[in-house]
Structures are given as C-alpha cells and as structure tokens.
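Contributing new complexes? Match this layout with adenosine-5'-triphosphate.
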Amino acid sequence: MAAPIPRVRMRGISKRYGTIQTLNDVALDLAPGEVLGLVGDNGAGKSTLSKVLSGAVVPEDGTIEIDGREVRFASPADARAAHVEMVYQDLSLCDTVDVAGNLFLGREPRRRILGVSFLDKRRMRADAVAMLQRLGISVPDITVHVENLSGGQRQSIAIGRAASFDPKVLIMDEPTAALAVAEVEAVLELIRTVSARGVSVILITHRLQDLFLVCDRIQVMYEGRAIAERQIADTNVEEVVDLIVGRKFSARSARNTQAEGVAIS
Amino acid sequence: MSTPAQISSVPTPATRLRPRGLKDRFFANGGVGSIAVFFVFVVVLFSVATEDFLSVPNILNILRQSSPLLMVAAAMTLVITTGGIDLSVGSILALVSALCAILIQAGIPWALVVLLMLACGGLIGALQGFFVAYEGIPAFIVTLAGLSVIRGVALLTTGGYSIPIPATLSFVELGRGWFLGVPVPAIIATGIVALAFVLFTQTPFGRYVTGIGANAEAVRRAGVNTKAVTLFVYVLSGTMAALAGVVLAARLGSGSSNAGQGFELDVIAAVVLGGTSLFGGRGTMVGTVLGALTVAVIGNGLILAHLSPFLTPIVTGTIILVAIWMNFRIFRGAARKR
Ligand SMILES: Nc1ncnc2c1ncn2[C@@H]1O[C@H](COP(=O)(O)OP(=O)(O)OP(=O)(O)O)[C@@H](O)[C@H]1O
Ligand SMILES: [Mg+2]
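Output block (do not edit by hand):
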C-alpha cells in the first residue's frame, strides 16, 4: 500500500442524458505530472467525463478525489478553486468580450472603491499581454472582441486561459483541432513543460500520433464506458485504433478489469 | 501564473494591422454612431420646422418628460444585453403609481412610501427573474404574463379610478420640482443613467451581463453564478420601473392604473434604437440615452408641429425600422454576424 496518492481519482462516474447513458460507471486515475490521453469514438463520452472533472457537469453517481481528498464539484467555481482548469471543445469564449476579458473571465483583477469592486482594466490588459507573450500567442490587439479572431487564435486564447492560472490538473478537449502545424507542435511542447512541472494533464484528441508524442498512458472510452487502459510503451497506433472502434478485442484488454462485461462483436 | 512554453513562434502579424483610427472606432460602435446621427437629424428637423422646439423651457420640458423613460431604459439595456426582455415595466409603473397614491392618501409618510414602492418593484422583478434565471422559462413569456397580471392587480386595487395626491405634499416635487434650474426628475434620471453606465462598463457584474448574452455557458464555466446575475438584472428593471412610477405619480399628482400603457414598447424602442442587440451580448448605455432622447424628441416635436399626436407611434415605429435597417446595412462591416 505504498502507492503514491493520485492527483485525481474518479470512481463510478455515471451520467444520463434523457435516454442516453452517457457515462456508465467510469473510473479514471491521474498521477501528478502524468499526461493521460483520453480517446474514443465520437459520442463516447470523453467530453462529458472531463466536464465532470471540471465541474461543468454534475454526475448522478460517483466520487472524485483530488490529492486523496474527496471533493464534490457542484459548479465550475468549485473545480477552479481546486485548480482544475479545462480547455473546452467548444472553447467557451464570449464573442462580444475582448481578448483580455475572456482570458480573465470569472477572475478579473479588481479595485475596490468605497466597498464596490470595479474592473481593473489597465492591469487586466497589461497582465493579458504578458500572459499571451509568455505563451507566444500572437493576437493583433488585446482589445478586439474575440469574434474578430481566427479559429486558431480563438483556440490559442482558450488554451492560454486554462494554462495560465497555475493549474494542478489541466484538461484539454481537442485543443489542436483548429491549429496549424507549428501551433500544434507548440501545444504539445506546452503539455511537456507543464507536466514536467508536476501538472497532471488530460489530453483528448483524435490525432493519435500526438498521443504517442506526449502521453504517458492512454485510456479508451467506448459508449460511455472506460474499456481499456495502456501504458504508452506497451501499445501502438493499430491497437489504439482497434480499441476505439471496438472491433478486435485483444487478450490484453481482457485482463483489464474495466473491460469486463463489454462484449463487442 | 507561469507557463514558459510557446504556443507559436510566429512573429506578431503587426504588418497586417492598421492602427485604429477615428473612423474605425466610429464603425466599431456602429449602433451608437447611427443613433447619434439620427438624434442630430431629428433635433435639426424640429428646430427648423417649429419655432419653440429649441427654446430652453421646451428642452427642460423634454428632459422632465423623458426621465421615466431614461431610468427604465437604462435598466432595460442590461436586461436586453443578457439576451432577455422585460415587458412588464409599463404595468409595474402603473401599479406603483396607483399604490403610491393610495398609501399617501392613507397618511403614510411619503419618504417611506417611496422606499416601499422601490422594494415592491424590486420584489416583482425578483419574482420574474427567478422564473427566467432559475426555472429557465423564456423572459418573453414570464414578463408577458407579468405585464398582464400586474396591470390586472393595479386595476383591481383602484377599481379603474385615478387617485389624487394632494399637491401640498412635498412628494410632488419629485416630479414637478426644480433644482438649480433643472427639473428634479431629470436630475434623478441623470444620476440613474450615470450609475448604470458605471455598473455596466466598469464592474465585473456588467462584464458578466455582456458575457451572459454572448455565451451564458462560457460565463458559468468560468465559475460565475450566472443565475444570480440574471435574476438581478430583472430586480434592477423592476426597481427602475417602480421609480419611474413614483416620479410619474408625483408629476401628475395622481396615481392611475391606466398609466404607462405601451410604456414597455417605448423603452424597448429606445434601447434597440440605441444599438443594443435584441439577441444579447451587445449593449451600449450611451446609445440607450440617445435612443430614449430621440423617442422623446419625436413625441415632443410632433406636438409642437401641430401634427396629430396619433402620428407619434407611426413615426417612432418607422424610425426604429429605418435605424435598425441602417445598422444592418451601413455598419455591417463592424459587427460581424455569425
Ligand atoms: N448536454 C447534453 N444533452 C444531451 N445529450 C448530451 C449532452 N452532452 C452530451 N450528450 C450525449 O452524450 C454522449 C457523449 O457526448 P460527449 O460529448 O461526451 O462525446 P465525446 O466523446 O466528447 O465525442 P466527440 O469526440 O464527438 O467530442 C453523446 O451521445 C451526446 O449526444
Ligand atoms: Mg467531445
């Protein structure tokens, strides 16, 4: 029992939307500094599972522990307080708010005057410029509304927002979908750097080659269940593809307890 | 806050960027730009067409008459910017003006009555806001029901009669008084508009109001209590409608359950004319002030021009359509439609 305390330990997570059992008794573990690749078919439940961890979705069932302590995320504010940050698949930006405003959404620098809190816009802009510079994100003008930015720039801003506020757990739901080659490389590099600092990362992507560049471990989801888990060294792209589409069922995955009872023809 | 890795090593595309000039700023605030032009246009038109329009007494008169509209439009700007609407403000105004007169007749000190009325408006707003924010019922439905029910309550309490307020009470000064040569209601309205402007543009609350209209889920995910913010904008519009009711009762020296018929439409017209988007996410307090003054000037100017007052709704409606159409046509480059 000398196993180190996991950064994240999720057990028995279940969530139903109408008639769809989106998540069915899902478990997930994440060690400090570990990079976990979460893969699965469209609609497998990857986004929903990560939203449970970021507090955006409240599951019907299941427990979450962060650093060995059980937490209950009733809202995203709770998860943020526990230093869980997420880059959402839909980016979650406010189109008619400027770049700085989006970066600081929900934690704006404030000045108190006569007991009323006002936005400290000057500090917000200065900090936002510094933040983006540190990440090497180039945005023409920090005061433009994000609706005027390109898809890739918007994505960079969503990533910058999640990465900049000292996360313990950083969830990235398809962060590279709209990015050009150099930018994808930079995101992978960002993942390596933050995980080297001890940040745990969950990376959701359909670009399987990326997983093999940065992940320590891969977890496969299939129709709302976590069906398999592999150390990156023990697997290859072909096997991951098989697991995702759920056709071949190798002997190895049968050994995995989480795969029990999932008989797919 | 420390993350060294680079997301891109591409140099800043400063070469593609022109500095923002005056023209860009004008077009970026397309709504405000066009209503400013429109406002100047109607002012010049009536100045030329009528003798008395540009006289000081008439301008002060316009300010006095438009103050209820300004107060409520300021709050309505916040409501509409969240993507909501409040159709009940005219009915709240009527109910409050009637209750106000009844309570003052009953001998309750008028200062207390004013506070009670503001609380009453806020409470009605909170109730409607609860159904909108926490129960997820569309604001249009909730406040349409409110419009009907609240007007009904007002009619029921007064039996349809107008209730006089003794002109000897200093209460009526709230509507008729002067302070340093300016009508008291105009001073109240200016104060409200200034507060609303600061609230909207300088506080986190105002930021969340805009954010909710743009992408409520994004604001929620950022850890903001979006339901409370949404509820509160209805509290504000209810309170402002009540204040408008108090000022109106004071000016007219009576409370009537028939006051403020169609008032909600004037308010919404003022806000939308000002350039606030009915779809939410885009609002401007400066535009709203110009919009409200434009609506007021049109009403006043048509009367001075000895035209039938029945023309007012026709002209106002036409101008709203033309102004919004201009916004879509001329200023399209600024506000990209998705
Ligand atoms: N808010 C919601 N309301 C109703 N159904 C939902 C909702 N969110 C997710 N679902 C359903 O849950 C299932 C899993 O969705 P989820 O977004 O988690 O999939 P995913 O694995 O992220 O897929 P993708 O690779 O396409 O992003 C889908 O069938 C989806 O229809
Ligand atoms: Mg997804």
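Reviewers usually confirm one structural detail per submission. For this one: The CA atoms of residues 98 and 227 of chain B lie 32 Å apart.
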